[in-house]
């Protein structure tokens, strides 16, 4: 398994494994923007790209894991945790945040396993599914 910066050559692969991009053309544009900004990284197993993640610094000047997306056939292979650990090790601020919906129990488990702890809620982003914000010190 290895993690590297995403390139424009990865765009179609990332859009294909992203469960939202299938039904939301805006997500493809967002993935393109993340790649162009240099904030997107891909996790590979062998020659296959199985996941991607995005680390930015727009959350009150702190590191923020904006996205971790693991393709369905690559789930439970450690790619999500590898991306989170990669971001923890490379975050340039002392504080690192991430968030996920209350309904996304897998991501909550992953973040807690990586040493994140709940830090608050944001209501009204998705109807009837609050966003939980998580916090970790950078490694």
From TrEMBL:
Domain (N-acetyltransferase) ranges: 1-139
Q: Which CDD domains match?
A: NAT_SF
Pfam families for the chain: Acetyltransf_1
Q: What is the name of the protein in this document?
A: GNAT family N-acetyltransferase
Q: What is the lineage of its organism?
A: Bacteria, Pseudomonadati, Pseudomonadota, Betaproteobacteria, Burkholderiales
